[in-house]
Write a structure and sequence with these properties.
Helices cover 62% and strands 6% of the residues. It contains 15 helices and 7 strands. The protein has helices at 2-11, 18-34, 36-56, 61-86, 90-105, 110-113, 117-143, 149-171, 181-204, 209-228, 240-251, 278-289, 319-322, 324-329, 363-374; strands spanning 258-260, 273-274, 310-313, 336-338, 341-345, 351-353, 359-361. The strands form 2 sheets. It has a 5-stranded mixed β-sheet, with helices on one face. Strand 4 (336-338) and strand 5 (341-345) form a beta hairpin. The protein is globular and about 75 Å long. The protein starts with a helix and ends with a helix.
């Protein structure tokens, strides 16, 4: 989102020339290399926006060409670099990437997404905001035709980008709330313009003051409600993650392996983490969210293979299934619990090491678990 903002800021400069569009293309190129969702939406948005510019002014190709060349070059160089690093694993990595795209980005899950109230609320909010923005800008253009051309182009780009992003998120993607974040980030300036216009009307025309004031009174609580609850983005976890990180740093030796699904923890502590592979995650996501006719088994990812001494459950509810063997091997009472994070210790006597280095649940421990369950 930040790189897209930089690119738009450069384009919106009224004195922007070919070199400025080239710099914007570099920013867009960096953006599409960071996140595959951005590649999927930003690329058609740039193409549609370029077609709009060319329809208005055929000579605009001189500015658009450096932008597209720079964007394609950055992405192409990044792709070549990744292939050279992957070497013999390139085909396997591409296979996993395509598998993830089919699951997360292009599952066409609209039938399930549109049954969720949160999706309907977000779609309705964006639709009303975009329609209001278009109507207001059209009226402003008629009353004040001397609008800076670069600003108008930036507004059209925002409209195209936000529309494509929200439509993709609601109708095509897997529908996770965090996937809507970028689209709503660029929707906020458009919504702010609408609210500002309503406020200005209360100062200009006496006959519209009451109506505009009423709309503002309704709009402000609506925006506060939407942005302070979990309607727009992910559920708020409070300070649970930071508390977990502090506990791990000062209470758990770094040499102790921890099996978990919390990738984010690996960036904050130097512990040895045992994580499921991307392919395992893809399979589990397909089973959980797309209703795949398949059961999750330990053959995909067995958390005991690497002899963990701790099992960490976190914000991904799926990890309760994936890490079930580790939970069975752990002591019954967690040593740390701060919702949604739960940390269990796995006593060494509960695991038995095989000749190939892998660990399995000790037979005695398994018998005790069965006795407890039967009772």
């Amino acid at each position: 989102a930040l790189m897209v903002c930089f690119g738009l800021l450069i384009i919106s400069n009224q004195r922007s020339k070919e070199i400025h569009h080239g710099l914007a293309g570099l920013c867009f190129g960096v953006a599409v290399t960071i996140k595959s969702q951005v590649l999927l939406i930003l690329t058609p948005a740039v193409l549609l926006w370029s077609a709009y510019r060319l329809a208005l002014k055929p000579g605009a190709w001189r500015s658009l060409l450096p932008l597209i060349i720079a964007m394609v070059s950055v992405y192409g160089l990044d792709w070549m670099w990744r292939l050279s690093i992957a070497s013999d694993q390139a085909n396997a990595n591409i296979s996993v990437l395509l598998e993830g795209i089919a699951i997360h980005i292009l599952p066409f899950r609209f039938a399930s997404n549109l049954l969720e109230p949160g999706v309907i609320v977000r779609l309705f909010t964006v639709a009303i905001g975009l329609i209001a923005f278009v109507l207001i800008r059209r009226r402003s253009s008629q009353s004040c035709p001397k609008i800076i051309e670069s600003h108008r182009h930036t507004e059209i780009f925002l409209l195209i980008f936000v529309t494509l992003w929200i439509a993709w998120w609601a109708f095509v993607s897997i529908g996770w709330r965090r996937y809507a974040f970028v689209g709503f980030t660029f929707f906020i300036p458009l919504l702010a313009y609408v609210i500002n216009w309503l406020w200005e009307q209360t100062q200009v025309k006496v006959q519209t003051r009451k109506l505009s004031a009423a709309l503002i009174i309704l709009a402000i609580p609506l925006v506060i409600f939407l942005t302070t609850r979990d309607w727009l983005f992910e559920d708020r976890q409070g300070d649970g993650f930071l508390a977990l990180v502090n506990y791990l740093k000062y209470s758990i030796p770094e040499s102790m392996p921890i099996v978990t699904w919390e990738w984010s923890a690996t960036y904050f502590t130097n512990h040895t983490y045992i994580l499921p592979t991307t392919r395992d995650v893809n399979i589990m996501t397909r089973i959980t969210f797309l209703g795949a006719d398949q059961d999750y088994t330990d053959d995909l990812f067995n958390p005991l293979d690497f002899c963990p001494q701790y099992a960490l459950l976190g914000s991904f509810q799926i990890d309760r299934t994936v890490l079930q063997p580790a939970i069975e091997a752990a002591a019954p009472e967690p040593i740390y619990h701060h919702d949604p994070y739960i940390l269990f210790r796995i006593p060494s006597e509960n695991l038995r090491k095989l000749s190939d280095g892998r660990c399995v649940l000790n037979a005695i421990r398994r018998y005790c678990n069965l006795v407890i369950i039967q009772r």
